[in-house]
Amino acid sequence: MHFLDTLSETILRELSRRAESKEPIGVPTGIGMIDETLGGLARQTLSYLVGDSGVGKSWLVTAILLHAAGWLQQQGKGPASAYVVGTTDNASYRRRVQSKTNKRSIVVFWSLEMAEAMVVTRMLVQLTKQVTGVSLDSGKLLRGQHVEELDALVQGYQRMKIIGQHIAVVFRDQTVDDFRNTLQELSLKYDVCLVVVDYFRLIQDIVESPTGAGRQEKVSRELMAIAREFDTHVLSIFDLNREGQKSKRPHLYHMKWGTGAHFDGDYIFIMWLDEDSCKRKAAGENLESVQLNLELAKARNAPLAQTRLILETCCGHFEPYYQREVE
């Protein structure tokens, strides 16, 4: 229990300290709209990236993860804790937050969909594009091709070695409890700044329900609890329902299995194909790049916003739409 006068004094003192130190609010994503509007992905918050299958959600969260890891490597520490030590009587939380300063900051990728080879290959081609400008096809690379681009690939690999010490990838966990235990072990040695879940639907059922609504609500609450318990940000990919899959412009009410996650999410991003790219894809064209809309459709204490991106489909490279227009 806390008395309001003591609590407010503690928080005001902490806010003043953060303003003077100019510590970053959250982990930067490399997506201008997110970083400018939200100040990055703040600790102790939960966000969902909602979109149709094949639109590029996994590519986007991987790009965010790599950018965050690169920033942590350069920065040497994570963003400011969202947790004010003086406002809790939970001793284990206090110890966890107070010990962060002496730990390496990392991001965690919980891969429920893709196997090890695909995850690493996708990261490798994205980094190769960033470092060399060479676009490699992840599918061809998995099939043993792109031998002629070995020099570029080696440069991408060298970059992965540098930032890889700030990335932990989890493959075997299937339930939230399994994953929480893994985070518990990681937090003993590392400061977990960001958790990416790929993706929500594949987390093993916790509550059996014919519609999945009960499961969705339970899992969402658990992910929100993880964000707070480990003083981290949790970003999870999320499905559309059938109505949303048919819609040219998805909305919050198209999130699959009801509204539980809708209410839990501090930030909800919706991603969908531009109308022209959608038509060309439907016509069977093999597109080297597609135009995407990314909307911040829900945000606590921040304005809503929208941006457009170009996704290079072979290597998952993203860039703002206006850059391509200028070219």
Per CATH, the architecture is 3-Layer(aba) Sandwich
Q: Percentage of helical residues?
A: 40-55%
Looking at this structure, what is the CATH superfamily?
A: P-loop containing nucleotide triphosphate hydrolases
- Sketch the topology as an H/E string, one letter per element: HEHEEHHEHHHEHEHEHHEHEEEH
User: Regarding CATH, which class?
Assistant: Alpha Beta
The general outline is globular
Task: Give a structural overview.
The longest helix has 19 residues, at 57-75. This protein has helices spanning 4-21, 32-38, 57-75, 91-98, 116-132, 138-142, 150-164, 176-189, 213-229, 242-246, 260-264, 275-282, 321-326; strands at residues 26-27, 41-42, 45-51, 104-111, 167-170, 190-198, 233-238, 267-273, 289-299, 305-312, 317-320. The chain has 327 residues and is an alpha/beta fold. Helix 3 (57-75) crosses helix 5 and helix 5 (116-132) crosses helix 7. The chain has one domain (39-271): P-loop containing nucleotide triphosphate hydrolases (Rossmann fold, 3-Layer(aba) Sandwich), CATH 3.40.50.300. The protein has 13 helices and eleven strands.
Layout of helices and strands:
Layout: H1 4-21, E1 26-27, H2 32-38, E2 41-42, E3 45-51, H3 57-75, H4 91-98, E4 104-111, H5 116-132, H6 138-142, H7 150-164, E5 167-170, H8 176-189, E6 190-198, H9 213-229, E7 233-238, H10 242-246, H11 260-264, E8 267-273, H12 275-282, E9 289-299, E10 305-312, E11 317-320, H13 321-326
Parallel strand pairs: 3-7, 3-8, 4-5, 4-6, 6-7
Antiparallel strand pairs: 1-2, 8-9, 9-10, 10-11
